[in-house]
Amino acid sequence: MRWLKALFLISFIIFGAKEAIAWCPDYHQTIQSQFKESTSIFIGKVMSEKTVERDGIENFIYRVEASRYFKGDSSKKVIEVVTENSSGRFPIEIGKTYVLFGQAVPKSEYIKNGSKTDNLLEITNCDSNSKIEEAGPVIEELKQILTSAQQTQPTYIGIYENLNDGWNKNRPAQVRVAFRSSDNGWVAMKHKPENEDELKSIFSVFPKAVSWIAIYDGKKLGEIYTSAIVTGNYSEVGIQNIVSLLLFKEIFLGASGFVYWVGSAKARPLLLSSGTHFDDPDSWKPTKVSEREKNLIVTEFRKLVPTVLDCKGSENVTKVYRDGEIKFEVPFRSKDGTVLIGLGLDSKKYYCDGPTGDECGERWFVLWKDGHLKYLGANLHPIDAADLNNDGKSEWLFQINRYDNDGYEIFWNNFSKSDTFDWIYH
Q: Looking at 58-62, 152-156, 281-285, 396-400, which range is the least confident one?
C-alpha cells in the first residue's frame, strides 16, 4: 500500500491537494493475495471518527472495536484505522460493522507527537473491505484460507478455564494450550521452565493465536478465538487471552468437582480443539457399576492405599479404613462395556492439618469387560472424552490437582498412551 501513497503525492503535485487521485494497479486482486499482503484482517464495529491533515490531504481516523480476527494481533480489542480522503478512500459509517483489510503505517506520520512505535491500519477501496451484511463471500473465503493453513499446522488441545482465583480476584476466563498432535498421537507443549531465563523464552513456543472449537459430551458448544500472552509467571505458561466468542456457552454442571491450587472453578473446564473433530465414537456415559466391578476396583485401591493417617485423637494414628469410608466418583462406561471409575478417601473425616496426601485424592482406574484393570493415577478428575484426531477412538482428558501443582493429563490409544502438561506456582 506504500505505492498508493506515492501516487497520492504525485496526484497532489499535479492536481492539488483536494483532487488527489488513487489508482489500484490490480483492482481485482484475489482474497488470497490480499491476505498475504495485509497486516491485519478483522471484523469490527466503528465507534468514532476524527479528521487529520497529512501533506495537505484530509485523512479520516476511525476507532474500531474488533470482534473477530482472521489475521493480525488479536490481543487488540480496539484498532485505529486510517483512510485518505481521495478516490482511494473506503467510506465508513459510525455504528456499522465491517470486514477490514489493513496495512500497518506509523501513527506518527498522521498524529503530531504520535508514538513512533504505535501503528494505524491503512485501508483503501483497493481491497475487499465491505459492510458485514455484504461480506458473506469474503468471510467464507477467509475461513477457507485459515482452514487450509491449519491443515499444515498441528492440532492443538486447549482447556477453557474460569476460576475463583484467590491470588487474582479479577482474573478473567482464559484458555490454556496444553497439547499438540504428533506422529505418536499427542505430546504436551513445553512446560515447567527450570529457571527465569527459560521462563522468559517459553512463551514463544506457543501459537500466537488459535481458533478453537469448544467441546462438551461429544458436541460442539461454540467457538473461541484466543491470542497468546508474551510473558508471564510460572503458573501462566500456555495461557491465551480470549479475543472473541461465537455461539459459546459455559457449563456449570459438575463445576464444583474441579479444584485448582488457587481456587475452585466458577464454570466447568472445557475441552478445546483447534481441529475439526469433536465427536465421541466410544459413547462414554455416566453409569452404575456392579458389585463385581466395585470389588475389583476396591481390591486394587487397597493395594495402593492400605492405610490412612487419622488425626482425630490426641495422637496421630495410622489406621486401616473401612470400605464405607471410600468415596466413589461418578463412573463412566463406553459402548463396548469399558468402565472408567475413580475413588478416594474423604480427607475431612481424619482432621489432619496441612495438605492432604495422595491417599485422599481421587485415584482413577479403567476396567475392561474381560476384567483387565489399569491404574491411571492419583489426584485426577475427568473433564471429557472426544476423538480429536479422527482415529475412531476417543481420547480422555483429566484435570490434575496436587500440592502447588495443577495441570492436565491426556490418555489415548485405548489408555495405552498418555502425556501430562502441568505447572507450579512457587
A: 152-156
With contact defined as beta carbons under 8 Å apart, do 12 and 21 qualify?
no
Nearest residue to 96 (alpha-carbon basis) of 138, 148, 123, 135: 135
Please state, in angstroms and rounded to a whole number, the distance separating the CA atoms of residues 158 and 61: 37
Please write the tens of the pLDDT for every residue from 255-267: 999 999 999 999 9
Grid coordinates representing 43? 471484523
Residue type present at position 357 = G
Beta-bridge partner residues of 122: 82, 103
Task: Compute the distance between CA of residue 115 and CA of residue 45 in angstroms, rounded to an integer.
Answer: 24
* 366 close to 374: Cβ distance less than 8 angstroms: yes
Task: Return the closest-CA partner of residue 71 out of 206, 241, 225.
Answer: 225
How far, in Å, CA of 84 to CA of 46, rounded? 17
Q: Single out the residue of 154, 148, 149, 218 nearest to residue 185, CA to CA.
A: 154
Whether 186 and 264 map to the same domain: the answer is yes
Domain assignment present for 309:
yes
Is this structure's pTM higher than 0.85? Answer: no
Regarding whether 194 and 136 lie in a shared domain, the answer is no
pLDDT in tens, 139-197: 999 988 877 765 667 999 999 999 998 888 889 999 999 999 998 899 999 998 989 99
Per the structure, the count of domains in the chain is 3
Pairing verdict, β 78-84 and 119-122: parallel
Q: Residue 65 sits in a domain of what CATH number?
A: 2.40.50.120
| 63/125 Cα distance (integer angstroms) | 18
Boundaries of domain holding 214: 153-273
What local confidence, expressed as pLDDT, does residue 114 receive?
Answer: 60
The pairing of beta strand 332-333 with beta strand 339-345 = antiparallel
Instruction: Taking residues 372-384, report their average pLDDT.
Output: 96
**According to DSSP H, which parts of 228-325 are helical?**
291-304
In the chain, what are the helix, strand and coil shares in percent, each to the nearest 5?
20, 40, 40
Give all strands (DSSP E) within 324-369, no chain letters: 326-328, 332-333, 339-345, 363-367
Alpha helices in 162-226 (DSSP H): 196-202
The predicted-structure confidence for 314-355, as pLDDT tens digits, reads as follows 677 888 888 888 999 999 999 999 999 999 987 666 655 555
Cβ-Cβ contacts under 8 Å for 387 (sequence gap 6 or more): 277, 278, 279, 280, 281, 282, 393, 394, 395
Instruction: For residue 253, tell me if it sits in a domain.
Output: yes
Model confidence band, residue 405 (pLDDT cutoffs 50, 70, 90): very high
